[in-house]
Structure formats: structure tokens, C-alpha cells
Write a structure and sequence with these properties.
Low-confidence stretches: none
CATH topology of the largest domain: Spore Coat Polysaccharide Biosynthesis Protein SpsA, Chain A
Oligomer: single chain
Bound molecules: uridine 5'-triphosphate
Order of helices and strands: EHEEHEHHHEHEEHEEEEHHEEHH
CATH superfamily of the largest domain: Spore Coat Polysaccharide Biosynthesis Protein SpsA, Chain A
Number of domains: 2
Number of strands: 13
Number of helices: 11
CATH architecture of the largest domain: Alpha-Beta Complex
Helix content: 25-40%
Strand content: 15-25%
């Protein structure tokens, strides 16, 4: 069964402990790559893929995220008055239609699967939905979720974004057991969350973009606890391998793991270098700093 994908769930209820102390007061998703919060990249990608309804699974201490999506009439007025047209456009491009965003609470961080399950009442019984993890920031010519929506139009079933990772890193990911490798698309024979490298069925790792059937929510209803004592989305998807099927999609583009400090820094440098207004000066700065550090060694 293939239907249009118009809803996306953004699970943002994690504790973000890798960014303490910052995340004591700031939701991770509000942290900025150059001048845009992580969540804005995720929203833009979703919009480009045809998503019209945005469901945030939040938790205590995330009110800055809700504020971010409010319109800012006073600020707009001030920019208009000052003739700052470009800034006004940037500001307005972040506006969301009234009623397009829904917030549900996850009262306790019991895992990604549990976070997705918290949104179950907002998903109809037969509609596919996307899940986007804003920590995985994608730089791609064609937005990654759009690539997946197009591929999904051919396959139906469930689809996870995937990429090859070094074998020693597989235990940080959900890992695909490959049933049939068709190049960009893989028919999935099984999924294992955070396997030890020697037990991993491959080095094809699941990345934070999914298109799922509501059947996944029924699997999550069982609240089965998996790796790390958490309710894992991977386990619920694995249960559909023999059902409506699961595909892994090797996306085109670069993925930055902005849930980790190193990944966040890499994304910051890379996005700054790509900016027309900053790139050239920033490149000179980086070259200088690297040269000085090499000379000091
Ligand atoms: P992570 O594994 O990155 O966990 O979650 P985290 O809590 O955000 O960060 P660390 O590891 O403590 O630094 C992956 C995604 O799943 C969401 C997170 O918000 C993030 O988008 N998540 C995770 C939830 O919404 N609820 C959970 O219970 C767990």
C-alpha cells in the first residue's frame, strides 16, 4: 500500500547529555550551526519532501523550541520599519502555519521507540509517516527525505535511511542485515540495534530518517525493552521485515552526527565554509590556524 507522506514526527525528548552543561538550559535542537538552529534544517528538509504536519515529541525544558516556532510580530515590525528586508525574509521563512505543529509529551526518556509511540494518536490507522531525528543533519543537493519519499513511491513498506560506517563504529547504530542488495536500495532481512562489531550483520547503519507504516506503532504498543534498557524503534521496524517489508535506502549526501561534539564541530566548519557571506574569510582563518598549529608541532 502506497500513500502520500504528509506527516513527520520529530522526537526531541532526549536528555542530550553529551552536550551538558549547555543542554541543562538549552534544548539541543536549538543549538545553532552558524546561525540556524538544528531544528530548522530538519524542518526545511521535511517541507521540501512534502510534509505538511509536524509532530514534536518534547519533554520538560524544551519550551524554547515551542517559542522558536511562534511568529514574532514585534520583531517583524521593527525590521520592516528599519527597511531590513533580507532579515525580515529570513525571519518569515521560519514561520509555520497555524495548526501545522502539534506537540506531545514524552514524560520520561524511555528511548526513541517510546518517543515515536507517544505520537500514536496523531497518526491515522492507514497513513505512512516520516520520522526525522534533527541531530542527524544532512547536506545534500536533493534533500534526503525527498529522495526517500520518491524511492518509497516505488516500494511502499517501511524505509530507513542508511550508510556504510567503519566496522568498529557499528555499535553506535542500528545495523541492517542485507537480504538483497540492489545498489541504492537494500531489501532488509533483519535489523540489530547497537551490535558488537563482531556480531554485526553488516556495516550498513541506520541514520535518522524513516518512512514508516502505522503497523510500527502497534509493535511499539508492546513496549518491549531492547538494547541499553530503552524501547528501540529499530526493534519495532525489525518486526515488520516479514510483514509489510523494510527497505534501507543509501541516500546521496553528507550526514553530520550533531548529537556528538565532534560531528557538531565538523558540521559547523563545513556549513560555514559553504556560506557565500562567510566562506572565503573563514577559509583563510582556518588555513592560518592550521598552519600555525603545524608549525608549533
Ligand atoms: P540520542 O540517542 O541522541 O539521545 O537520541 P539524546 O538523549 O538526545 O542525547 P545523549 O545521548 O544523552 O547526548 C536520538 C534522538 O531520539 C530522541 C532524541 O531527542 C534525539 O532526537 N529521543 C531519545 C527521544 O525523543 N526520547 C528518548 O527517550 C530518547
Amino acid at each position: 500500500m502506497k500513500r502520500r507522506v504528509t506527516k513527520a514526527i520529530f522526537p526531541v525528548a532526549g536528555l542530550g547529555t553529551r552536550f551538558l552543561p549547555a543542554t541543562k538550559a538549552i534544548p539541543k535542537e536549538i543549538m545553532t550551526l552558524v546561525d540556524r538552529p538544528l531544528i530548522q534544517y530538519a524542518i526545511d528538509e521535511a517541507r521540501a519532501a512534502g510534509i505538511r504536519e509536524f509532530i514534536f515529541v518534547t519533554s520538560r525544558g524544551k519550551s524554547a523550541l515551542e517559542d522558536y516556532f511562534d511568529h514574532a510580530p514585534q520583531l517583524e515590525q521593527a525590521l520592516r520599519k528599519a527597511g531590513k528586508k533580507e532579515l525580515l525574509e529570513i525571519l518569515q521563512s521560519t514561520n509555520m502555519d497555524s495548526g501545522a505543529i502539534a506537540y506531545v509529551r514524552q514524560h520520561e526518556a524511555r528511548g526513541l521507540g517510546h518517543a515515536v509511540w507517544c505520537a500514536r494518536r496523531l497518526i491515522a490507522g492507514n497513513e505512512p509517516f516520516a520520522v526525522i531525528l534533527p541531530d542527524d543533519v544532512m547536506a545534500a543537493e536533493k534533500p534526503v527525505l525527498q529522495q526517500m519519499v520518491e524511492a518509497y513511491a516505488e516500494t511502499g513498506g517501511n524505509m530507513v535511511a542508511a550508510m556504510e560506517v567503519p566496522r568498529e563504529k557499528v555499535s553506535a547504530y542500528g545495523v541492517v542485515e542485507i537480504a538483497e542488495d540492489m545498489g541504492r536500495m537494500v531489501r532488509v532481512g533483519g535489523l540489530v540495534e547497537k551490535p558488537a562489531p563482531e556480531e554485526a550483520p553488516s556495516n550498513l547503519a541506520v541514520i535518522g530518517r524513516y518512512i514508516l507504516t502505522p503497523q510500527i506503532l502497534r509493535h511499539l504498543n508492546r513496549k518491549k525493552v531492547g538494547a541499553g534498557g530503552e524501547i528501540q524503534l529499530t526493534d519495532a521496524i525489525a518486526a515488520e521485515v516479514g510483514g509489510q517489508g523494510v527497505y534501507a535506502y543509501r541516500f546521496e549526501g553528507e550526514r553530520y552526527d550533531c548529537g556528538s561534539k565532534a560531528g557538531f564541530l565538523e558540521a559547523t566548519v563545513s556549513f560555514a565554509l559553504a556560506r557565500e557571506d562567510l566562506g572565503a574569510d573563514f577559509r583563510r582563518f582556518l588555513e592560518g590556524i592550521v598552519a600555525r598549529s603545524n608549525a608549533a608541532e
